[in-house]
Write a structure and sequence with these properties.
six-stranded mixed sheet, alpha/beta, 6 strands, 47% helix, globular, 20 helices, binds iron/sulfur cluster
Length: 466
């Protein structure tokens, strides 16, 4: 044993002797699976069926199985695509109610730490313990819990992107295509341009979990503003809360200081509720968990109320396009930031405690999302309809210049799969991010995790690496 080994052994004997008696956490099992630190050529289910992992799947950040879209071959059968669930014990399949949860219907392999041979389950079970590539303690120390995408699992197209100095140019082309597509979709709508813009803005306020609920309210804009003139912003806020089905009936017990605000909303709503009663959404349509407090739908409704009360965003966007200034992200943020509100700049929800610090109703990340996905495509559509070629060019120039949006799991995965890169340096602008998302939409979503049948690499080889 060398000196270093001795020191390590004294601090953590498991690392030296490779003790297998300990039970790992589920997170470590997930990391081992994702990095495929297993004897890949020897895997067998509890029923002695050979398992060949063609792709371990993509780590799932949503509710449901741990990995989605894995590709597994059992014995010599045709490979199957499906999801992977990882638990410590085989009994967790029933214990965690996976068997009755429809999110798990597509699971093709249940991975567990250890279980007796011939253990029974309705789906195939693979114990990991007998097939670890190295002793668990060493794996625990090396795989960590930060998932790394194994280089061998990069997409087929990544080799061309990695070699090319035209990567950015190509992503920008894909981004401009995406911008055009969004703009064409907006132009094709039969609603007025104004209404199309508002519905897009509302949808963006809902993020992915509540986009349909917000869109449903956005569609009611003519009703919300048209029935009777609103007295003030709170009047519009009351209509939006009432229509959303999110206006609480009872006062707050824990924070009675909020009751004045809630009573004021009810003062408006009880008088107007009858007019809107056919359009009230069920409260169950909303997904309120899993969002950051600062992005809670209550705050988004409050923001929408302020936009709607002024009802001048479309003309402000058109004016802004003519002279957006140097710092386009900041000038856009200012454009859509409402005046300070004594309640909503200090509360996450209608009943929550007062926050210790001022909370803006919108930040730069959401503003970027709204600009890139809604406002710039809309401005392109309007410029085109007005035969304003200078406006069209300005929209494209702003689109390509915009600073990157907040990174997310989709972008991380796409960067690694398509560009073979982990670093955000590979997507330095919002447009390069959008280009990447467009490639995922057009190609990855029509193939599988091992790129079967994807024609994209053949098409780009001579463009990126002539
Ligand atoms: S599916 Fe196509 S576009 Fe997606 S990573 Fe594979 S080769 Fe690239």
């Amino acid at each position: 044993m060398n000196i270093y080994e001795k020191i390590v052994g004294e601090i953590n004997p498991h690392l030296v002797c490779g003790d297998m008696a300990i039970t790992p956490s589920e997170k470590i099992l997930q990391a081992i699976w994702f990095n495929q630190r297993i004897k890949r050529g020897e895997l067998k289910t509890t029923k002695n069926i050979n398992v060949r992992v063609l792709h371990p799947g993509f780590f799932n950040l949503e509710a449901g199985p741990d990995f989605k879209n894995a590709i597994i071959q059992f014995d010599n059968q045709k490979p199957v695509q499906g999801d992977i669930e990882i638990d410590l014990n085989i009994s967790d399949w029933k214990g965690h109610s996976h068997s009755s949860n429809p999110n798990y219907n597509n699971v093709i392999l249940h991975i567990v730490w250890d279980c007796p041979d011939e253990a029974e389950n309705s789906i195939s079970v693979l114990p990991l313990r007998p097939f670890l590539e190295s002793p668990l303690a060493i794996l625990e120390d090396t795989v960590g819990i930060d998932f790394q995408f194994p280089p061998t699992l990069e997409g087929v197209c990544s080799k061309f992107f990695k070699r090319s100095d035209k990567q950015r140019m190509f992503l920008e082309e894909a981004a401009l295509f995406r911008l055009e597509q969004k703009s064409i979709q907006m132009s094709a709508r039969s609603s007025s341009r104004e209404q199309v813009l508002w519905e897009g803005l509302f949808r963006a306020l809902g993020y992915k979990n509540n986009s349909w609920a917000f869109q449903s309210i956005g569609e009611l804009k003519p009703l919300i503003l048209g029935e009777s003139p609103a007295q003030d912003e709170r009047n519009i806020e009351a209509r939006l809360f009432g229509l959303s089905g999110l206006l609480p009936y009872d006062l707050s017990r824990s924070h009675p200081e909020n009751d004045g605000h809630l009573k004021r909303l009810w003062d408006y709503w009880w008088r107007e509720r009858e007019i809107f009663s056919n359009y009230i959404l069920p409260g169950s349509i909303w997904r309120l968990s899993g969002t950051r407090p600062v992005n809670h739908p209550h705050r988004r409704i409050a923001l929408a109320a302020r936009w709607l009360f002024k009802n001048d965003l479309s003309s402000r966007f058109l004016t802004w396009l003519k002279s957006p200034g140097e710092n386009i992200e900041e000038s856009f943020l200012q454009l859509i930031t409402p005046e300070e509100d004594p309640f909503w700049n200090w509360h996450y929800t209608i009943k929550s405690a007062k926050t210790a610090t001022f909370q803006p109703l919108i930040g730069i990340d959401r503003a970027t999302d709204i600009a890139i996905n809604i406002v710039l495509p809309w401005l392109l559509a309007v410029s085109r309809e007005n035969s304003d070629t200078a406006g069209e060019e300005r929209v494209k120039e702003l689109y390509l210049r915009w600073k990157p949006a907040q990174d997310n799991a989709l972008l991380k995965l796409a960067r690694k799969r398509i560009l073979g890169a982990f670093s955000t340096d590979a997507t330095p602008t919002a447009a390069t991010q959008q280009g990447l998302i467009q490639i995922v939409k057009n190609f990855c979503e029509n193939s599988d995790s091992i790129c079967t049948g994807c024609k994209f690499p053949d098409k780009i080889e001579y463009i990126l690496c002539p």
